[in-house]
Design brief:
heterodimer, A: alpha/beta, Cytidine Deaminase, domain 2, two-stranded antiparallel sheet, B: Rossmann fold, eight-stranded mixed β-sheet
């Protein structure tokens, strides 16, 4: 089974514009992407449904990390995932060009929280997405107990799946 | 020297991008065949022509690549499409689908773009709905022939380029409730489904222009949905005024939140039923637990 992530036109541009906005105290902004799912033979398509920015007041002051979201911010994202039966993908950005790569801290931290997303929306995969200025990569959990796997492709209108690297 | 050298202005990596593309073409007749031909010449690597129909004598006025024997033997249009493409690019991958697209959706989900060259508004609307639900760009061709009140005919048509997240064919005024209900009588003016090779060719060229510019842009303009209208009587082709006036507005007909299948379940089983109180409580608990865990790392 391969897992492919697709977005509509200009979707990641909208996310980038949001997470690039400065915050009063958080060093960076993060957000969530809602995704629908569809089976394509043995493969799974994850289809971006919307972007949920984290509101200014939902960040917690924590100078040791780039950004920390408070319970209210997470609750809003989980409720939307539950209400719409969507997959929930935490998203942040590394400000450089070229293929972004998850660091060891990203992987460790996401392994702590992504499996819990299945409690809110158990039918669909969940994960994390990482943007650069012109590319994206992602990790996906197809079950809460399975470990993360790299998304096989991330595409948008105009980017062929066969040519896409996740 | 590559056989695509004369289109190197599309970019240094354009040949690889075109080779990587998978294009589904629903309708392998007069509308679909010139698109298949042009995309094969352009270097597109993989094709899924879909048509359940066989060639008949009356297809020969417009079906590109058709030979008299095809009608005599009743060859399937989808298989003729494979022959057309492979004669142009023997390395192209072609998977002809003899059948209805509705019965072959799994194959179409692999497509990077789907072209619809089918007759009825109902079928065109359904194919666009499928594409929107799976975030697949859709390119639709429609040709019109109307009898004019003072004699003669108006011949025209349009290419709709419907990109997920932007205007759709309903926004463009191509699919309307009135048209859906009246379409049975629309083609009556000049016999059943009138089509001619020259207007199909013009519409196909406009469509291929939009498709290639989406994948290998040669200019800086951002891709967007559009509708190009052909007036064959005047010999003009221009963007629809309706699209121009609706530019920048959100599509109300295909909300993104509907993307995907509502029946999808990765577990392959049924959802344990819980009331909304259970979920409200559970979400609150999860949110508190995760508050310390979810953080960004710069």
């Amino acid at each position: 089974m391969n897992v492919h992530f697709k977005t509509p036109l200009g979707f990641f541009d909208t996310v980038r514009a949001d997470v690039r906005r400065p915050h009063t105290f958080a060093a960076e902004r993060v957000g969530f992407v809602l995704a629908g799912a569809a089976a394509a033979g043995p493969d799974v398509l994850l289809l971006a449904r919307g972007y949920l920015p984290v509101e200014d007041g939902d960040y917690l002051y924590e100078p040791r990390v780039g950004a920390m979201i408070g319970p209210a911010g997470i609750r809003k994202a989980l409720q939307e995932a539950y209400r719409t039966c969507s997959g929930l993908f935490h998203i942040h950005m590394h400000e450089h060009r070229g293929q972004p790569l998850f660091g060891s801290i990203d992987r460790r931290e996401s392994s702590r929280f992504v499996p819990s997303f299945f409690n809110a929306s158990p039918k669909v995969p969940h994960g994390v997405l990482l943007l650069s200025a012109d590319a994206a990569c992602g990790l996906v959990w197809v079950t809460p107990k399975a470990g993360p796997r790299v998304l096989d492709s991330i595409t948008w209108p105009g980017l062929p799946r066969k040519g896409a690297l996740a | 020297m590559s056989w695509l050298d004369r289109q190197s202005f599309l970019g240094p990596n354009s040949a690889n991008t075109l080779r990587a593309m998978t294009i589904g073409v629903v309708g392998g007749g007069g509308g679909g065949s010139p698109i298949l031909q042009q995309l094969a010449h352009a270097g597109v690597g993989t094709f899924l022509p879909v048509d359940h129909d066989r060639a008949t004598r009356t297809n020969r006025n417009r079906l590109i690549g058709m030979e008299p024997l095809d009608a005599l033997l009743g060859r399937f249009k989808a298989r003729m499409a494979k022959r057309l493409i492979r004669r142009i690019n023997p390395k192209a991958h072609v998977r002809p689908i003899v059948g209805r697209w509705e019965d072959n959706t799994a194959a179409l989900l692999c497509c990077d773009l789907i072209v619809g060259a089918i007759d009825t508004f109902k079928a065109r609307a359904e194919l666009e709905d499928f594409c929107r639900a799976h975030l697949i760009p859709y390119c639709d061709l429609g040709m019109d022939v109307h009898e004019l009140p003072d004699g003669g005919f108006f011949v025209g048509g349009q290419v709709a380029f419907s990109l997920p997240g932007d205007l759709c064919m309903r926004c463009m005024g191509i699919i309307t409730d009135t048209r859906l209900s009246q379409e049975a009588s629309r083609y009556g003016a000049a016999g059943p489904a009138p089509q001619v090779v020259w207007t199909n060719g013009a519409l196909a060229s406009a469509a291929v222009n939009l498709i290639i510019s989406l994948f290998t842009p040669w200019h800086s303009a951002a891709p967007r949905s559009t509708c190009i209208e052909l007036d064959a009587n005047q010999g003009t082709m221009a963007e629809s005024n309706r699209v121009t006036s609706f530019r920048g507005t959100q599509c109300r007909h295909h909300p993104l939140i509907e993307a995907g299948s509502p029946m999808f379940d990765i577990r392959g089983g049924s959802d344990p039923s819980h009331g909304s109180d259970y979920w409200d409580k559970a979400i609150g608990e999860i949110a508190r637990e995760l508050s310390s865990a979810i953080r960004g790392h710069s």
